[in-house]
Write a structure and sequence with these properties.
CATH topology of the largest domain: Rossmann fold
CATH superfamily of the largest domain: Vaccinia Virus protein VP39
Strand content: 15-25%
CATH class of the largest domain: Alpha Beta
Strand order of the largest sheet: 6-5-4-7-9-11-10
Oligomer: single chain
CATH architecture of the largest domain: 3-Layer(aba) Sandwich
Shape: globular
Largest sheet: 7 strands, mixed
Number of domains: 2
Structural class: alpha/beta
Radius of gyration: 22 Å
Amino acid sequence: MKIIKYNGQTLKTNHYIEMEDKEYYYLKNEYFKLPIFQEVKKQILNIANGGVKDDKITNYYFLKLMVKTKLYSCKWSIEDVFNSKELLSYFWVKTQLNSKVFLSKESVKRKLDTTFRLGGKGVAKKPNKFPVKKVDEILKKYNINNNYYDFSCGWGTRLTSSLKNKVNYFGTEPNYLLTEKLIQFANDYKEITKQNTIVDIRTQGSEEFIPEWENKMGVAFSSPPYYKLEDYKIGNQSYKEGVTYYQWLENYLKPTIINIYYYLVDDGYFLLNINDFDEYKLVEDSIKIAENNNFYLVGEEILEGNKRCKSTNGFNDNSEKILVFAKTNKNNNIPHGQTSIYDYIKGSDKEWETTLKN
């Protein structure tokens, strides 16, 4: 039995063989080796022509930021694994145990990604990435004026689909390192494909109102943080250590939804990919907030096969809901006795708590 200790966490395992420094640095370098840009360019052109595969794009622009994310159910992030020779040995040994799953001809990166996905439960796993194909479907169905707001930009797949479908993309993302990479990718994509789609990404949280976006968006769609399910570490994130679920709803989700209402044109749609986890009723509470702020729930889309880790290990349901809301009549958007969006956002904590419980 091997006991691995790192950053205040402990793992007991029988899957362990001492690793030489030379092998450790080789594995680390292979995993983080960037694809050559010609391969990235080829994938961009393929996407522009209708493709959906974006692995080289993800690895080139976003991998080094993705691995910093720590999942609620895990002891460590993937970055932690690569900073610990013992943890990396634990995962690498697993790639040697099943020749049918881990083919000898596969790359180091593919093998390690497979073992993170299949054998990282409770230890370390990569955050999920939204599928380009599903974003394509949503934009084709709900885009009404060619302006799309992504209120939690994530790992570039919604931006990719927006560029692919030549829909103007407006995004908010508090991770300042990620916004740099998103803008770099967008600029490269537009240069390679010779298109002039508008991309406007702000380094801020979606709970902060942007006046110039009011009454501009035809559709708002994203997959926001599931409270504390994933800790993204960088920037002014909606969840920080000590933030309660009620505070997260009040200070992040509620003003985000109110802002979206004001950004949308009268016939616009608001789509929210959300799922419950642990004891947190995110679906029910999201619907209640949206309906209390003049949105109508008109249906749902299903995101099949997308899995997020549960706090108790394992996964939530394989399929997640994408709630579809429609905006109400613009003349009814401010409650009686309130005169602006800012009054509405501030509201009364006591009133909000009562509303949420009812």
